[in-house]
Amino acid sequence: MHTNFKEQARIFKAFCDENRLQILGMLRCGEKCACELLEKLEIRQPALSYHMKILVKSKVVKSRQAGKWTHYSISESGSEYALSLLKELTTPETNILDESSCSAELCGSSQHKGSV
How far apart are CA 96 and CA 56, in angstroms? Predict the structure, then answer.
């Protein structure tokens, strides 16, 4: 099984910036037009576009065009996937009977035997 670490990193990148976290906080109250986001944030339009591109690419936020403005909202399926991914990545494997059966892809190598 091949894990797509690039896709996973794209999801978590959405959460590692103060502006993007502020945007997500505003979107928790419902859909917002880009003009509304700009009004409340202390950033310029190009910066908002940059942050929204990252949020939309992560699939945590979805967008829809209405006239000249784009409207954004939290994607329920995207946020559920991000939450399940975080849980999966931070939950120790308890089903592995023998460390040598742990895949090299997941654990770095089959010769890790407790060393860090």
Answer: 36
Looking at residue 100, what DSSP letter applies?
G
* Cα 12 from Cα 78, distance rounded (Å): 12
Read off the amino acid at residue 35: C
Structure tokens at 106: 């997941």
pLDDT in tens, 7-45: 999 999 999 999 999 999 999 999 999 999 999 998 999
What's the start-to-end Cα distance of the chain, in Å?
24
Q: Is 51 left (phi over 0), alpha (psi -120 to 50) or beta?
A: alpha
SS3 category, 66: strand
Question: What is the spatial distance between Cα 50 and Cα 86, in angstroms, rounded to a whole number?
Answer: 24
C-alpha to C-alpha distance for 47 and 44, rounded to whole angstroms: 5
What pTM did the predictor assign? 0.77
